[in-house]
Amino acid sequence: MTVGYECSGHIRDFLHELPKCEHHVHLEGTLGPDLLFPLAERNCISFPNGFPTSVEELEKRYKKFSDLQDFLNHYYIGMSVLIKEQDFFDLAYSYFEKAEKDGLWHSEVFFDPQGHVERGIPIEIVINGFKKACEKAEKELGITTKLIMCLLRHLPSEDGLLTIKSVNTYYEKGWIHGLGLDSSEKPFPPELFENCYSFLKKNFPNIQLTAHAGEEGGPSYVSNSLDLLKVTRIDHGINSIKDEKLMERLANEKILLSICPLSNVKLQVVENVGQLPIAEFIKYGVSFSINSDDPAYFGGYILDNYIAVHESFGFDLETWCLIARNSINGSWCDEKRKLEMLNAVDKVFEKYEKLLSN
Ligand SMILES: Nc1ncnc2[nH]cnc12
Ligand SMILES: [Zn+2]
């Protein structure tokens, strides 16, 4: 892969210090080989025949996936080592620690309860572990957090509806802030889940809605998510570029796309980050945030994704601050927190404008 721009020295420090918000990270996707094997041992879990047996072998296997489904097959095996509340806590907290070191200020994290409940893990174990990690991250790392529950689209929508009903009390308590939709995209279009989204919105009008769309699926997956699921955010959404009217709509309706550059390369959606329509999004006025998706599988956390974008596009400080502000404004945190982050962006800009002009 040719890298067009260097990202070292002041510009790297600038990207590090720039207040970053993450809107698209699956907590189960932060489970790397280094944690997977100890957890498997701790919980006496064995893997299917042919599954790598060492950290090195597994890292090698994660170097390349043929497509989304190839990755998901490993992702579901990986999560089978999560059994106890402590496991869920450890997983989430170690992600928050890593991301905080990358300069993360605000994190909206996905989790896949159906992937655990179908293995016999009570949903309370999953949510309590993740919630406690969020609380500790807020207190000790100063990160603000939101939990977003995702439905697995390869499972029937009836199962999704039961899952939503089973977490009623957590929505009431405000522990879960939003609903998302993930897993195998193309065979399971958004319209299959209209009943789940409308039920939740009717019962909890303040709930935030998002869905994976336009990662491998075409632009109709994006527009149907907007029209039928009534989402206000799209996870990935990169195939929106194939439909000019949709691009204009995304800009007009201020829909945030949570894009995941290193993920798109690893899952062979594009050959390299430079092929992503990032410059076009800016030209059309489509807001996006830059995210890590499943960092333990795709070779990089949030800062690595920012760096990869810089290496391909070489944006100036103004453009990077625009990206940071759009990402803050598209967050589901309160206005006070947004203002804090926006002010911090101005300060970082002033500092590096001086440094880079010297
Ligand atoms: N990139 C992705 N797309 C769809 N489902 C996912 N689950 C975890 N990562 C995902
Ligand atoms: Zn994702």
Automatic annotation (TrEMBL):
<comment type="function">
    <text>Catalyzes the hydrolytic deamination of adenine to hypoxanthine. Plays an important role in the purine salvage pathway and in nitrogen catabolism.</text>
</comment>
<keyword id="KW-0963">Cytoplasm</keyword>
<dbReference type="GO" id="GO:0005829">
    <property type="term" value="C:cytosol"/>
</dbReference>
<keyword id="KW-0479">Metal-binding</keyword>
<keyword id="KW-0546">Nucleotide metabolism</keyword>
<dbReference type="GO" id="GO:0009168">
    <property type="term" value="P:purine ribonucleoside monophosphate biosynthetic process"/>
</dbReference>
<dbReference type="GO" id="GO:0005634">
    <property type="term" value="C:nucleus"/>
</dbReference>
<dbReference type="Pfam" id="PF00962">
    <property type="entry name" value="A_deaminase"/>
</dbReference>
<dbReference type="GO" id="GO:0009117">
    <property type="term" value="P:nucleotide metabolic process"/>
</dbReference>
<feature type="domain" description="Adenosine deaminase">
    <location>
        <begin position="19"/>
        <end position="347"/>
    </location>
</feature>
<dbReference type="GO" id="GO:0006146">
    <property type="term" value="P:adenine catabolic process"/>
</dbReference>
<dbReference type="InterPro" id="IPR006330">
    <property type="entry name" value="Ado/ade_deaminase"/>
</dbReference>
<feature type="binding site">
    <location>
        <position position="26"/>
    </location>
    <ligand>
        <name>Zn(2+)</name>
    </ligand>
</feature>
<dbReference type="InterPro" id="IPR006650">
    <property type="entry name" value="A/AMP_deam_AS"/>
</dbReference>
<feature type="site" description="Important for catalytic activity">
    <location>
        <position position="236"/>
    </location>
</feature>
<protein>
    <recommendedName>
        <fullName>Adenine deaminase</fullName>
        <ecNumber>3.5.4.2</ecNumber>
    </recommendedName>
</protein>
<dbReference type="GO" id="GO:0008270">
    <property type="term" value="F:zinc ion binding"/>
</dbReference>
<feature type="binding site">
    <location>
        <position position="24"/>
    </location>
    <ligand>
        <name>Zn(2+)</name>
    </ligand>
</feature>
<dbReference type="InterPro" id="IPR032466">
    <property type="entry name" value="Metal_Hydrolase"/>
</dbReference>
<feature type="active site" description="Proton donor">
    <location>
        <position position="215"/>
    </location>
</feature>
<dbReference type="GO" id="GO:0043103">
    <property type="term" value="P:hypoxanthine salvage"/>
</dbReference>
<feature type="binding site">
    <location>
        <position position="212"/>
    </location>
    <ligand>
        <name>Zn(2+)</name>
    </ligand>
</feature>
<dbReference type="InterPro" id="IPR001365">
    <property type="entry name" value="A_deaminase_dom"/>
</dbReference>
<keyword id="KW-0862">Zinc</keyword>
<feature type="binding site">
    <location>
        <position position="294"/>
    </location>
    <ligand>
        <name>substrate</name>
    </ligand>
</feature>
<keyword id="KW-0378">Hydrolase</keyword>
<keyword id="KW-0539">Nucleus</keyword>
<dbReference type="InterPro" id="IPR028892">
    <property type="entry name" value="ADE"/>
</dbReference>
<comment type="similarity">
    <text>Belongs to the metallo-dependent hydrolases superfamily. Adenosine and AMP deaminases family. Adenine deaminase type 2 subfamily.</text>
</comment>
<dbReference type="GO" id="GO:0000034">
    <property type="term" value="F:adenine deaminase activity"/>
</dbReference>
<feature type="binding site">
    <location>
        <position position="293"/>
    </location>
    <ligand>
        <name>Zn(2+)</name>
    </ligand>
</feature>
